[in-house]
Design goal:
Family (chain A): Belongs to the bacterial solute-binding protein 1 family.
Number of helices of chain A: 20
GO cellular component, one term (chain A): periplasmic space
Oligomer: heterotrimer
CATH architecture of the largest domain in chain A: 3-Layer(aba) Sandwich
Radius of gyration of chain C: 23 Å
Number of helices of chain C: 14
Helix content of chain A: 40-55%
Structural class of chain A: alpha/beta
Chains: A alpha/beta, B mainly alpha, C mainly alpha
Protein name (chain A): Carbohydrate ABC transporter substrate-binding protein (CUT1 family)
Number of domains of chain A: 2
Main location (chain A): periplasm
CATH superfamily of the largest domain in chain A: Periplasmic binding protein-like II
Radius of gyration of chain A: 23 Å
Keywords (chain A): Signal
Number of strands of chain C: 2
CATH superfamily of one domain in chain C: MetI-like
Number of strands of chain A: 11
Chain lengths: 425, 300, 270
C-alpha cells in the first residue's frame, strides 16, 4: 500500500513538468547568479510560452555530468553554462554551436561586453561560441576597519615608515600581511586545496610579481625570478601568516576564517564580496571591501580573470528555443535586474549603470579589476594544466619540492600539453 | 581447480539439480547481461585503443600501449601503492572494530534495536555528505574537534593539511562511515549460527574464549571472508571521500587510484588509458579474490 | 558476579561505540538548527536557534522530490534484486551452478571503477530511451546490488541447512519447496541483512545517479551535493537535509526489530 502510494506520487512528480508546449533544459550550478536567473524565469515563460527547466548540480561534478551529454549526437540539454577553463576543450571537441549567424540575424551587439571577458568566454579564434554570463575574477578582500584604526596606523608607521592605507602595490600588501599577523589574528587566509583553488589563487601571486604563464609563442615562462618568488611567498603565507591547515582549505573554509573575523585579507572570487554582508554567514558585515589584487607597480594589476558563458551545445534538442532564452537572459534589461539582485555582471553598460553604482559602491573597483586582470592560459588542455599546477604547487607548499623544482616540472608538462595542442611549435 | 560436480558419473537427479540451479540463476543473470555486459566489453575494447573524448573514435588500435603507459607512469604506481596500504588499513581496522561490536550485539538483548538504529545512521549518509560534514568538524581553527581537543590541552591538529596526517584522517572518517557495513553482515552471520555446538562445549567446560576460537571462528569463516572481500572491493573504489576532502593532497599524500582514474577519464578525457588502468585494477582484485576463494575452500 | 560482568561489559563497549557514532550526528542536528555564522563560532555558543533551514530545503530546494526519488529507486531496486540474488546465491551454493568462473564473472564487473562503466551505460540508456527515467536508475542500481547481494548470500546458504533440505526431499518435497520452505527461512537473517545493505547501496549511489538522472529524477545524493557550490557550502541547510535523509532508519526499524529477534530464534531452531 505504502509502496503504491509512493509510486503514484513519484510518477506524478515526474510527469508534472512536461505538460505544456516547449521546454528548454539547462544544466547549471547552485551559485547566486543561478538563483537570480531562476527568480526571473517566470517572466520569460510569460513572454514566450517556453518553459525553462533549470537542473542544478554541484560544481565539482558538473563536468562529469556534462561530458557524456556533449559526446552524444542528441543530448538532454538545450543550453549549457561553460566555465572558462572548459572552453578550449569544448571548442576542440566541437561540442558548442557557433553563434555568429544568430548574433548577426538578431543584431546583437557583443561589443557591450568587457573585452577581457569576451576573450575568455565569448570568442575563440574569431568565432563566437558563448555569451559571457557572469564573471568571477579574483580580487583582494580586506578588512577596512583594521586599516582605519588609528592605533594600527600609528604602529604600522612606526614599524615600516609608511602609511597604513589601501595597498597600491604587492610589496605594500605583503608588509600589511606581516603586520596584521598578531594577537591571534592572521594577516591572510589561503585556499591551498588541489587543484583549482590553489592553482587559481597562486596565479594572482604570479601576476602580482610581474610573471606570466607563457610568452607569445607559448613557451612556458614560470621557472624564473617572478615564479620562484610567487611560490615562496605563497608558502610563507600559509606557513607563517595564515591559520594552521590552510594548505588544505577550499574557498569555503578560507571564507569562513575571514567571515569569522580571524584574518585581515583573502584573495578570492568577487562573488564572495556580497556574502561578507550576509549576517547569517558573516561576523564582519560592512567591514570588508574588495579591490584588484595589487601588482608590481600601482599601474599594474595582479588579478586573475574568470567567468562563465552561456552556450548552445551541438547536441541541443531545441537550439532555437535555447537561443530565444539566451537573447532574453543577456538583454540589457534582464542583465541589469540580475545585477541589481546581486549578480556579477559582464556588460560595460551594466557596470556604468547609475542605479547599480548607487546600490553597490564597489562597482568601479570591480570594473577596474576586470580591466586590469590577467587571463589564465586557455587551450584544449587547460583542465590538465590546472591539475599539474595543483599537484606541483601542493608539493611545494608541503615542502616536498623546492619552488624551482616544482616550477620546472610544471613547465615541462605545460610545454608538452601546449605542443600536443599545436600551440607550441 | 574446483570441480564442476562430477560430470562423469552424473545421474538423472544430478542433472535435474544442475538444471534447477540454472533456472534459479537465469533471471539474475539475464538482468546482469542486459545492462552490464555492454559497458564491460566496451571498457575492454576501449583499453586497446587510442580513445579520447575529444576524438571519440576507434580509429587507432594501440594494442597494449595504454597498459604500458599506465604501468610506466610514476604517479599511477604511487597511487596504486597508496591504495593498497589504504585498503588494508581500512578493511582490517573496520573488521576488528566491526567484529567486536557484532559479537557484543549478538550477546545482548536489551537496547539492541537502539544500538542497531544508531549504527545504521552513518550508512544512510552519502560519502559526499560525510566528506562535507567532516570537513566542517575538522576545520583546524573553526572546527568542533580541534576545539574539544584544545579544552584538554592538545594543540590544533592539522587534520587535512599535513602530508603525514591526512591519509589517517581519511581512514578515520571512512571507519566512522563504513564500519557498520561490517557489523550488519557479521551480526547476520553470528545470528544464523546453530546453538548446539555451544551447548555441547559448555557441558565440556569450555570458556567463552575457547568457544570463540574453536566454534565461532571456524563456522564464521565463509561469512568473514566474503565480508572482507566485499568491503575490500568497495574500499578500492573510494573516490568521493577523497574528492570532497583532499583532492589527493596535500602534495600527493592521499591520491588514491580510483580518484586518479577518475581524473584520467574525466579531466584528461583519456578514456583509453583510464580503461587500461581500470583493467589492471580489475586483474589485481580478481587475483586476490581467487586466492581468498581457494583459501576459503581449502580450509573447509 | 560472573553473570553481571557478562552483561555489563558488552553494554559498556556498545555504549562507547554508539556514542562515537552518535556525537557527530548530534552536532549535525545542532548545525541544522542554526546559521552558518554560529555553526563556525569557536568557542561554540548557542547563538541563533531556529528551524528556517528545514523550511529552506523545501522552499529553495526540491527536497521532497529528491527524497521520494531516492526512496522509490532504492525500494524498487532492492525489491527486484533481493529475490533474484537469493535465487542465484542458492544455486551457487547448493548446485555450484556455473562453477567459480560464473561466480567471479558476476562480481568482476563490480571490480571496475564505475567511472569507466558510466559512459557506455549512458549510451545504452540513451538509445533505449531510459535516460533520466526512474526505470533507468533502478536498472543501473540493480547492476551494483545484484552481484554483491548474491555474494553475501552464498555464504549464508553454505551453512548447514543442506541436511534439513535433504530430509525434506526424502519426505517428498520438491526442489523448489526445499528452497522456499527450508533454505530461505534458515538464511533469513542473512537475506534481511543483504536486503538492508542493498537498500543502502542504492540510497547512497552517486555517480550513476548523477549522470543518468534529469531534473525530475534527481536523487538525494545528487541533490544534496549541489549544496556545495563554487560560492561556498550551504552547510546549515545541508545539515537539515542530512538529518531528514536519516528518516528511513525509522521506516526500517520496526522491520529490523522483528529481524533482530527472529534471527536469533531461527538460529535456535536448527
Amino acid at each position: 500500500m505504502f509502496k503504491k502510494l509512493l509510486l503514484g506520487s513519484v510518477l506524478a512528480l515526474g510527469f508534472a513538468g512536461n505538460a505544456s508546449a516547449e521546454t528548454i533544459n539547462i544544466l547549471m550550478e547552485g551559485v547566486p547568479d543561478t538563483e537570480f536567473v531562476k527568480q526571473l524565469v517566470p517572466e520569460f515563460t510569460k513572454e514566450t510560452g517556453i518553459e525553462v527547466n533549470l537542473e542544478v548540480v554541484n560544481y565539482a561534478e558538473m563536468h562529469t555530468k556534462l561530458v557524456p551529454q556533449l559526446v552524444a549526437p542528441k543530448g538532454s540539454y538545450s543550453a549549457i553554462v561553460v566555465d572558462f577553463y572548459w572552453v578550449g576543450e569544448f571548442v576542440k571537441a566541437g561540442w558548442m554551436q557557433p553563434l555568429d549567424d544568430r548574433i548577426k540575424a538578431d543584431n546583437i551587439d557583443t561589443s557591450v561586453y568587457i573585452p577581457a571577458l569576451m576573450d575568455l568566454v565569448g570568442q575563440v579564434d574569431g568565432t563566437t561560441y558563448m555569451l559571457p554570463f557572469y564573471n568571477y575574477a579574483m580580487g583582494l578582500t580586506y578588512r577596512t576597519d583594521l586599516l582605519a584604526d588609528p592605533q594600527n596606523q600609528a604602529d604600522f608607521k612606526a614599524k615600516y615608515g609608511m602609511d597604513l592605507k589601501v595597498p597600491a602595490t604587492w610589496d605594500e600588501y605583503l608588509k600589511q600581511v606581516e603586520f596584521f599577523t598578531r594577537d591571534g589574528m592572521h594577516g591572510v587566509v589561503n585556499q591551498g586545496l588541489r587543484p583549482d583553488p590553489i592553482a587559481m589563487e597562486w596565479s594572482n601571486y604570479l601576476f602580482a610579481n610581474g610573471g606570466e604563464y607563457h610568452d607569445a609563442n607559448w613557451n612556458p615562462t614560470l621557472n624564473n625570478e617572478a615564479g620562484v618568488k610567487a611560490v615562496e611567498q605563497y608558502k610563507t603565507m600559509i606557513d607563517k601568516y595564515g591559520p594552521v591547515g590552510s594548505a588544505s582549505f577550499s574557498f569555503d573554509e578560507a571564507f569562513n576564517v575571514m567571515a569569522q573575523g580571524k584574518a585581515y585579507s583573502y584573495i578570492t572570487y568577487n562573488f564572495f564580496r556580497t556574502a561578507y554582508d550576509d549576517p547569517s554567514k558573516s561576523a564582519v558585515v560592512g567591514k570588508v571591501e574588495i579591490m584588484p589584487v595589487p601588482g608590481p607597480t600601482p599601474e599594474q594589476g595582479g588579478s586573475l580573470n574568470g567567468a562563465w558563458g552561456w552556450a548552445i551545445p551541438k547536441s541541443s534538442p531545441n537550439p532555437d528555443a535555447a537561443w530565444t532564452f539566451l537573447k532574453w537572459v543577456e538583454s540589457k534589461e534582464i542583465a541589469k535586474k540580475r545585477a541589481l539582485a546581486g549578480g556579477s555582471p559582464t556588460r560595460t553598460d551594466v557596470f556604468d549603470d547609475p542605479d547599480l553604482n548607487a546600490k553597490y559602491a564597489y562597482y568601479p573597483a570591480l570594473k577596474q579589476m576586470l580591466l586590469t586582470s590577467h587571463n589564465f592560459p586557455v587551450f584544449t588542455y587547460t583542465p590538465q594544466l590546472v591539475e599539474v599546477l595543483g599537484r606541483e604547487l601542493s608539493l611545494a607548499v608541503a615542502g616536498e619540492k623546492t619552488a624551482s623544482d616544482a616550477l620546472a616540472a610544471i613547465e615541462a608538462e605545460m610545454a608538452e600539453l601546449a605542443r600536443k595542442d599545436g600551440k607550441l611549435k | 581447480m574446483i570441480g564442476i560436480g562430477g560430470i562423469g558419473n552424473a545421474n538423472a537427479a544430478d542433472r535435474r539439480d544442475a538444471r534447477f540451479g540454472y533456472a534459479l540463476s537465469a533471471p539474475a543473470l539475464t538482468m546482469l547481461f542486459l545492462v552490464i555486459l555492454f559497458p564491460v566489453v566496451s571498457a575492454l575494447y576501449t583499453s586497446l585503443h587510442e580513445y579520447t573524448l575529444i576524438a571519440p573514435n576507434y580509429d587507432t588500435f594501440s594494442g597494449f600501449e595504454n597498459f604500458m603507459l599506465a604501468l610506466g607512469d610514476q604517479e599511477f604506481r604511487h597511487s596504486a601503492w597508496l591504495t593498497a596500504k589504504f585498503v588494508v588499513g581500512v578493511v582490517l581496522l573496520e573488521f576488528v572494530i566491526g567484529f567486536a561490536v557484532a559479537l557484543m550485539l549478538n550477546k545482548v538483548e536489551r537496547f539492541k534495536p537502539v544500538y542497531y538504529a544508531i549504527l545504521l545512521c552513518p550508512l544512510l549518509m552519502n560519502p559526499v555528505i560525510v566528506g562535507l560534514i567532516w570537513r566542517m568538524f575538522l576545520h583546524p581553527n573553526l572546527g568542533i574537534v580541534n576545539y574539544l581537543l584544545s579544552t584538554v590541552g592538545f594543540g590544533p591538529v592539522n587534520w587535512l593539511g599535513d602530508t603525514k596526517i591526512a591519509i589517517w584522517t581519511i581512514i578515520l572518517v571512512d571507519i566512522w562511515h563504513q564500519v557498520s557495513f561490517m557489523i550488519v553482515l557479521l551480526l547476520a552471520g553470528l545470528a544464523s549460527l546453530p546453538k548446539e555446538p555451544y551447548e555441547a562445549a559448555r557441558v565440556d567446560g569450555a570458556n567463552s574464549f575457547q568457544c570463540f576460537i574453536h566454534i565461532t571462528l571456524p563456522m564464521m569463516r565463509t561469512v568473514i571472508v566474503v565480508t572482507l572481500l566485499i568491503r575490500l572491493i568497495f574500499a578500492v573504489k573510494t573516490y568521493d571521500l577523497i574528492y570532497i576532502m583532499t583532492r589527493g593532497g596535500p602534495g600527493i599524500s592521499t591520491d588514491l587510484l580510483s580518484y586518479f582514474i577518475y581524473r584520467t577519464a574525466f579531466v584528461s578525457l583519456n578514456i583509453g588509458e583510464a580503461s587500461a588502468m581500470s583493467i589492471i585494477l580489475l586483474a589485481a582484485i580478481l587475483a586476490l579474490t581467487v586466492y581468498l576463494y581457494r583459501y576459503m575452500r581449502a580450509i573447509r | 558476579m560472573r553473570v553481571r560482568w557478562g552483561s555489563f561489559i558488552p553494554h559498556l563497549i556498545l555504549s562507547a561505540f554508539s556514542l562515537a557514532i552518535l556525537l557527530p550526528l548530534v552536532w549535525i542536528v545542532r548545525v541544522s538548527l542554526t546559521d552558518k555564522l554560529t555553526a563556525y563560532k569557536i568557542p561554540p555558543e548557542i547563538g541563533h536557534v531556529g528551524i528556517e533551514n528545514y523550511i529552506e530545503i523545501f522552499s529553495a530546494y526540491p527536497f521532497e522530490r529528491w527524497f521520494l526519488n531516492s526512496l522509490f529507486v532504492a525500494l524498487a531496486s532492492t525489491a527486484i534484486s533481493l529475490p533474484l540474488a537469493t535465487a542465484m546465491a542458492y544455486a551457487f551454493a547448493r548446485f555450484n551452478t556455473g562453477g567459480i568462473f560464473l561466480r567471479l564473472g558476476v562480481l568482476a564487473s563490480q571490480m571496475l571503477p564505475p567511472i569507466i562503466l558510466v559512459l557506455p551505460l549512458f549510451t545504452l540508456f540513451f538509445t533505449t530511451g531510459l535516460m533520466q527515467t526512474h526505470l533507468g536508475l533502478i536498472l543501473a542500481h540493480l547492476t551494483i546490488s545484484l552481484p554483491f547481494l548474491a555474494w553475501m548470500l552464498v555464504s549464508f546458504f553454505e551453512g548447514d541447512s543442506a541436511s534439513l533440505e535433504e530430509a525434506a526431499r526424502i519426505d517428498g518435497a520438491t526442489r523448489w519447496q526445499a528452497f522456499i520452505l527450508i533454505a530461505v527461512p534458515v538464511a533469513a537473517p542473512g537475506i534481511l541483512a543483504a536486503g538492508l545493505l542493498g537498500f543502502i547501496l542504492s540510497w547512497n549511489e552517486f555517480l550513476f545517479a548523477l549522470v543518468l538522472s534529469g531534473a525530475d529524477t534527481q536523487t538525494l545524493p545528487v541533490g544534496l551535493a549541489s549544496m556545495e557550490t563554487h560560492a561556498g557550502v550551504e552547510i546549515a541547510p545541508l545539515a537539515a537535509a542530512t538529518v531528514l535523509s536519516l528518516l528511513p532508519v525509522f521506516v526500517l526499524l520496526p522491520f529490523l526489530r522483528k529481524y533482530l529477534i527472529k534471527g536469533l530464534s531461527l538460529g535456535a531452531l536448527k
